[in-house]
């Protein structure tokens, strides 16, 4: 559990983030889905991309716990912008790499807001490194494709997880406009999100752009997938909280049959169920964030619990929100649909709930052997 | 928060906790009676009672009986250690304190929050020595609408004369004392005319009759009260303030009970379920080889993990949210119901041949069909799931109340 000082800092950060994202036109009251991305310079000026960047490189020397606070506010505001891809994934990947001039420079630029790196992690498959690096007389050449990369269209730099000729996972630093590299935007129902297919066909890579992980490379890729899952859980938690608040506010003023509808037991109990789901999601997400920040051995388990529960619960919660807003909730103008689409997308990205539960269930085999 | 029933608040380091866990493990290996489940299945009541009394004293000697009480009364264990204690007791399948449950939780939290010094000194040490308590709140016409209770207490000099009928008093057949709500002002609005008493069950005029419940067991009782004299010194809090005393202490007590129950469900019930799923059925197939079973197990484990965190926070938090206790109770009872329902399903027809539950076991004894039937003992008493949802909606979310009279 965070100490008193840290939790006060998180409360402050939450309020600042809610203010900044609200001012950017996001949030439950913001209506229809045609949102503009939150201005990246304002995000960078707030210091959010640099939380996990070392102080020596212009960062805040903070942890994933602070990133998670902002991710949750992005969810609460259903905000557009590449923050999850940059802060949760790209900076997360860079942090796991051997230090070097290229990596350090990119971290510095990211913290300063000049660079927008995106990790080409495929949110659609469980393949951690769908790219291959081949050795050729002209140097290393990159091939492969990731079909569903979050915020790829916004990428200033692409960090591509690949297997080198020896089968070791590495990160390849490249640009979205490199020869042979193709980033194709794939419009999705959730209008608050940008997704792209990243394909590399014979991309020539400079040797100094091939960056190696510190320690176990496969473990590093697993940790990145866990971080991605937790990032989605944070987003889903925030958007659930927003929809619970909006629904309670609406049920407290909307009148039918001469009563405020929140006084009807059917409505009240549905709100209570939303509250319970949000309370459980909050606990599981907090545990997963803590485990990520501490690099604990149980981080994978906690990530799968948070992802499977919080992302499924969010769909239930927003579904109830739409139902309890009645006809108004079904209009484009109300904006509830924005949250529903985002919740349903979050549930699908980086492993649907069933996949994460399958991971959890692998641990029961120990029991099977005992019996 | 007035009870102070959260044990010690000081944070324990992981190393301390590890050492404490090892200590509890050693203790469990040395003290949990071998084969108690079999020995306690289907035994007569007297044997159950003497087994429970002996186990309580065993725990007391180790400092494990009332860890949640304040240090001055024999508790004071940090919350993180309490969680470890309950985890290990469950993992080693230690018997639960069934007979002492109301005494160490409801009675103690009432006395600590609202009792006089004399009442505390009279009863807290006595509870450690084995004084058994029951709760006399519900009545035939006052269930969810508890404030509609009609049992009356008429003041006559230094005593109150009590008449009426209570029901659903768990363990009353063995109780020495009873927490009693009775109406002292019939003219006042219903919540304002109720007082809270400590009732000595040896007083003349008390008749206790067990009620056989859905599981076939009979630990709930009706209590008939016929001109029962209660000394005025046994009033808890001011006259006619009993409703407020009950509201205050119910929430305080809930946190304590939930931590133990949640850890028991996770480390006893869930593990037992996984083990059961690992055993081959009559056709040779194991439920654990079925991906649908694995999916359900993982979902249950996930929710249990969330519940355990909620309960730990409820106990550790000096100022819990107004609906936190209701959330924990609702989640626990519905999760217990779903877990035992699923267990009864995967355990198949053979589970139906378990005709008795081992007394002193948890709510998830492993006799899954009876456990499932018995799970309504959690979704109905202590405020039904519907009442909890109303509390969450109104106190937790601030939604408008039902119109008066509805």
Number of helices of chain A: 12
Number of separate structural domains of chain B: 3
Give the proportion of residues in helices of chain B: 40-55%
Please trace the helix and strand order of chain A, writing H or E for each element: HHHHHEEEEEEEEHEEHHHHHH
Specify the oligomeric state. heterodimer
- Mean pLDDT across the residues of chain B is 92
Topology:
The complex is a heterodimer of chains A (371) and B (406).
Chain A: H1 4-23, H2 40-45, H3 64-77, H4 83-95, H5 101-112, E1 117-119, E2 131-136, E3 139-150, E4 157-163, E5 169-174, E6 181-185, E7 195-204, E8 210-212, H6 217-251, E9 255-256, E10 259-260, H7 265-294, H8 299-324, H9 326-329, H10 336-348, H11 353-361, H12 365-370
Parallel strand pairs in A: 1-4, 2-4
Antiparallel strand pairs in A: 2-3, 3-7, 4-5, 5-8, 6-7, 9-10
Helix pairs in contact in A: 1-3, 3-4, 3-6, 4-6, 6-7, 6-8, 6-10, 7-8, 8-10, 8-11
Chain B: H1 14-31, H2 36-39, H3 45-62, H4 79-91, H5 101-114, H6 117-128, E1 133-136, E2 152-156, E3 159-170, E4 177-183, E5 194-200, E6 206-211, E7 220-231, E8 235-236, H7 242-278, H8 291-316, H9 324-347, H10 368-374, H11 376-379, H12 385-396
Helix pairs in contact in B: 1-4, 4-7, 5-6, 5-7, 7-8, 7-9, 8-9, 9-10, 9-12
Structure description:
Chain A: This is Acyl-CoA dehydrogenase family protein. Chain A: Its EC number is 1.-.-.-. Chain A: InterPro entries: Acyl-CoA_Oxase/DH_mid-dom_sf, AcylCo_DH-like_C, AcylCo_DH/oxidase_C, AcylCoA_DH/ox_N_sf, AcylCoA_DH/oxidase_NM_dom_sf. Chain A: Its cofactor is FAD. Chain A: Residues 229-363 form the Acyl-CoA dehydrogenase/oxidase C-terminal domain. Chain B: Belongs to the acyl-CoA dehydrogenase family. The complex is a heterodimer of chains A (371) and B (406). Chain A is of the alpha+beta class. Chain A has three domains: 4-116, Butyryl-Coa Dehydrogenase, subunit A, domain 1 (Orthogonal Bundle); 131-212, Beta Barrel (Butyryl-CoA Dehydrogenase, subunit A, domain 2), CATH 2.40.110; 217-370, Butyryl-CoA Dehydrogenase, subunit A, domain 3 (Up-down Bundle). In chain A, 51% of the residues lie in helices and 15% in strands. Chain A has twelve helices and ten strands. In chain A, a hairpin with a 5-residue loop joins β4 (157-163) and β5. In chain A, α3 (64-77) runs antiparallel to α4 (83-95). Chain A starts with a helix and ends with a helix. By secondary structure, chain B is of the alpha+beta class. Chain B has three domains: 14-109, Butyryl-Coa Dehydrogenase, subunit A, domain 1; 132-241, Beta Barrel (Butyryl-CoA Dehydrogenase, subunit A, domain 2); 245-396, Butyryl-CoA Dehydrogenase, subunit A, domain 3 (Up-down Bundle). Chain B is 47% helix and 14% strand. Chain B contains twelve helices and eight strands. Chain B has a four-stranded mixed β-sheet. In chain B, strands 2-3-7-6 form a four-stranded antiparallel β-sheet, with no helix packed on it. In chain B, a hairpin with a 2-residue loop joins β2 (152-156) and β3. Chain B is globular.
